[in-house]
Write a structure and sequence with these properties.
- The structure is a homotetramer.
- By secondary structure, the first copy, chain A, is of the alpha+beta class.
- The first copy, chain A, has a single domain, classed as Chorismate synthase AroC (Chorismate synthase, AroC fold, 4-Layer Sandwich), CATH 3.60.150.
- Helix content of chain A is about 25%, strand content about 20%.
- In chain A, helix 1 crosses helix 7.
- The longest helix of chain A is centred in the last third of the chain and has 23 residues.
- At the B-C interface, strand 2, strand 3, strand 7 and helix 2 of B face strand 2, strand 3, strand 7 and helix 2 of C.
- Strand 11 of chain A pairs antiparallel with strand 11 of chain B.
């Protein structure tokens, strides 16, 4: 379980720093026979790209994935798939003035403690730039899942105190901020504009919804499907919480209310409600798997902040001129959540092939 | 990452069904030189034991751990530590009448889908009985952590709609339900009695708090410390959510408010607040690591429930006479949460030994 | 890849010291639906048991495996299978006089260097007693493989300078030393008697032969089938070498001679020779997989040996009175080799289920 | 344990096909603080490069490694190190005529069976081209080991029936075929020339020798140091055997002769002989770790060979015009053996950091 890898059978390893030459991902264990091309991956990357809307960071790079291996005659061959995404807009000079300051809410302090070194150029490995690789790999996982009719959506359900109407998950694409409730979307964008004008940032919540899963995915005890999903979600930068199905609200529910009632519908056994979030005992029931992920407000803000240098002297942290600044990281995280759900389910699907003789 | 194992270097594997001969755990990778004995493990097990208070299930077994290997002259030898806990109070006969019914909120449906078989005796492998093994292994992890002055507490902070006062974590032992706020504890026990009288159950929230950690534990990207904690927590039966530090509340916070300000105190760099929950960029800061885990209400309730048989015929599920019935599983989960935090941190501590040359 | 575990999907973890309370194994990842019982395991253990013939060590224990979990109504349930074998003949007192001496050819020196401690009682964890657990787990792996018509044999092909006729592998059971060539078997037993009378020991070579494998098992690059077999074999105590197919003899062969010629026989593509040992590019061809494992002479000999104490003072090592003493460890290793081949192939069989969409 | 990865803590993942755009490796878990540069890697690659001598295949590419990530200010930063090696001399057109033939001794048959597809261009993933990535990663592992004064050599000890004088391992560099015995080297080159003239190939044996290791590396039971070395060696293409220390010769040795005698020399406990090969009970003793690896003759030969097509029709396999053709693959494998030993020891070194409290 090396630090930069995710998954057991469908396993990705990502590499690259925010302002290095490139970032990339190696996907090992993808079954042979899946049709993939670069366009599919680039479409996924475009959704995550900065500069996509005024509400996300204006980095001007165009993410172009290059498939270097693992595809033969248009299909996965069973060999590892290596994808490279060049870093085009990567001028590190503006990071020099702050390089000896501890950045509030950022990882340079802990990297220095752990490794004795920190690549200050745009956050190096700690940058959310790494998540482009997750999205690229996720596009392939989704293609695998699609052959089994599994679909995955993710969308914004809360920014600040504004919440979307429950159940809104279709047509999120029309919203510049991936919120499928048009009314909430409008109020959220207003909040984002105000927050940005103040040089501040704000948190949010992303919901995911996976439909079409067969029953039986996930393992009992430690690799419960909700546990691997929680691990996947909390590995995304800036996440602070995860819930599955009823989530934290279950703390104030009765068993008689929370238990989903089994019944038979068209020869299939299912349940009338889905407080479980599509998982019982760690194993998928066949109903939709859904949950929510909490994101903290971006730590990069335009407001100057008191801090210390790496040697402990008082200092003031100011974002460099022309710095990228996301008022709400939850928005750009939507395709990342989707990708991580896809990677988790693809792995569970393959692992489940050994359950029975 | 086999299904019944947890951890990379400090790695446990548990086995055993609720009503089989025994349950047990093998701990592999515990460093040599740690003093351990069976009493330490049995003390930990006593906290989790059913029948400990009127608010938990009255299973009458006395959990006695037997160390079968891995300890030589009172200390860990580097060899795997095998611990066995016999199942004494394990009469499966009462489970026979319901063996062909799908139990609402339970895993027999998904086990049947996945494996084609389900050990109906007390839930078999899906039973919370397995968590006794986590507590036993956690006692050893805590002993390892204690040599580095790391301490871990867990305690109830919410049952139903009743919440404990923030910051109450000491002297939880005086409360029969592990709640360190005496006033809330009293109201919670009243609620539990009423719920039990109604044949129903209720959910709750457990908080954990680990202090004394060195900075540097946890890995960037996928094995972030919060990600492995989330995985650990969601692997506990009946959990529905996890949050670290500010958690879901971060969704409605500003960056200027959420960012913890660095300063120097007595030659050590630290922060004035701890919204981060002691982790930045996946790596421990040296401040306390804390978070919360949501538990659903127990699915075993005395109220009869409509369901279907395994072949889909309508039926009514009634708990067998004299059945164990926990009104709130969050309470007995407190030592389990503590154990899982300990196992996660022990592994992170060992993994961190390779960070630098 | 914890030290005491073997396998990825079909994964075993063993525990226990030679003279502790018991040894045992947990098998995780065995598919549900395989019929197993304790008798099958005990039959396998009987083949490995010391005291089986005058040519192996006379330990008088009767190995009785107890299945503690993972079997429900006579079949594997998908839950981990825990097997315990008690240590009955385990009087450690005779090891006390030598406890501070470095034993030539033994592991107490290296355990002390690594762990700072060594369980001197019969070798503790370093004892070949651990291999009983491999044989128990191997019996289950063989049962899984049998459902796919895979069979595995192992047998002695060399002791000292005496070699068995090539191709002799059937009816090994009639030989007290698992050698299927009756003539060689007779000469080998004479050699063993002479060696034993001199208080000395001698090395040997075990061959394995697995037939009925489907093509496609094993992975390219690192998890080549021959690589996992080599890993499995060299993990057996006292092994010094491994070869697959043509083995070391290939060093003196021509390509024109070594290349196995493909042809079609009864609608199946196969090869006329099998220098490859049933594996090309790390993946099984469908032909028999065979190879050889070299064992050093047992390091426990009755002849007194010069050595030093753990602190470096000169001393003489004498086997304790009434000590167990195997003139040739390769013999008792035959069922262990068989078990390790079975465990390797069972894992490869499950891993191969994800090769294609 | 994904197919294209090697190692637990110091872990590499390689990717790329022989005639794709590039091959590459990601090294995850390399400790921070090690000085590395591209020149060091390119020097290692030059030793493996084809066309280095008339005795290896004349591929004209110049392998240039590009470090894409993981190095900051000249030192490893703790982030994954991505290295890319472009495929410059990669014209696949000459492979087209044979694309539907089963190539004797090659992997296209087994890849087709496993994956349903095979990248016929130069062997695709099955090509020894992948070993360039091992050499690149090995150069970094060697740099890590060098800081602990561990050195590793590998050299030819046998080609056909010609063997080098035992103990010759220095000054191998003067020999075009990495053989440190000048007399044997001369006779071997004559044999290689004759073999090549016949359009044939021949096998060989490579020895490795690692000195300066601390005692304590390697784990008991499954991850024995000799087992991980065996796994590493048999993962190299064309290998048929592995032995450690006394190896197969141990089968004809007595215990009284094989046991290495402990004594004290200059305050250090060591042994007078080293039949063990520097490992006892799976753990390094502090003496040199050495062993041998057998290579089959290259399966690509100029002599036409009878075979069948992928659908089973009789056919003749002829190497394409101007094809690369190595008379003895063992020679180019020397730096690969060295690299795999380095990767194995680097991982063992890091794993050993958790042995004691």
């Amino acid at each position: 379980m090396a630090s930069n890898s995710f998954g057991t059978l469908f396993r990705i390893t990502t590499w690259g720093e925010s302002h290095g030459k490139a970032v990339g991902v190696v996907i090992d264990g993808c079954p042979a026979g899946i049709s993939i091309d670069e366009e599919m991956i680039n479409n996924a990357l475009a959704l995550r790209a900065p500069g996509r809307s005024p509400y996300t960071s204006p980095r001007k790079e165009e993410d172009k994935a290059e498939i270097l291996s693992g595809v033969f005659e248009g299909k996965t061959s069973g060999a590892p798939i290596s994808i490279l995404i060049a870093n085009n807009d990567a001028d590190p000079s503006k990071y020099v003035p702050n390089k000896d300051l501890l950045k509030p809410g950022h990882a340079n302090f802990t990297y220095l403690e752990k490794y004795g070194a920190f690549d200050f150029r745009g956050g190096g490995r700690a940058s959310a730039r790494e998540t482009a690789c997750r999205v690229a790999a996720g596009a392939i996982a989704k293609q695998l899942l699609a052959t089994f009719n599994v679909t995955i959506d993710a969308y914004i359900v809360q920014i600040g105190s504004i919440t979307a109407k429950p159940g809104c998950r279709k047509e999120r694409a029309r919203s510049p901020i991936f919120c499928a409730d048009p009314d909430a979307s409008e109020r959220m964008t207003a909040l984002l504009e105000a927050t940005k004008a103040q040089g501040d940032s704000i948190g949010g919540i992303v919901e995911f919804y996976a439909a079409g899963l067969p029953a039986g995915l996930g393992d009992p005890v430690y690799n419960k499907l909700e546990a691997t999903l929680a691990y996947a979600m909390l590995s995304i930068p800036a996440t602070k919480g995860f819930e599955i199905g009823s989530g934290f609200a279950a703390a104030n529910m009765r068993g008689s209310e929370h238990n989903d009632r089994f019944f038979r519908q068209d020869e299939v056994i299912t349940t009338q409600t889905n407080n479980a979030g599509g998982i019982l005992g760690g194993i998928s029931t066949g109903l939709p798997v859904y949950g929510r992920v909490a994101f903290k407000p971006a730590s990069s803000i335009a407001i100057p902040q008191e801090t210390v240098t790496t040697t402990g002297s008082p200092a003031t942290f100011r974002l460099p001129e022309g710095s990228r600044h996301d008022p709400c990281v939850a928005i750009r995280a939507v395709p990342v959540v989707e990708a991580m759900v896809a990677l988790t389910l693809a792995d569970a699907l393959l692992l489940n092939r050994s359950a029975k003789i």
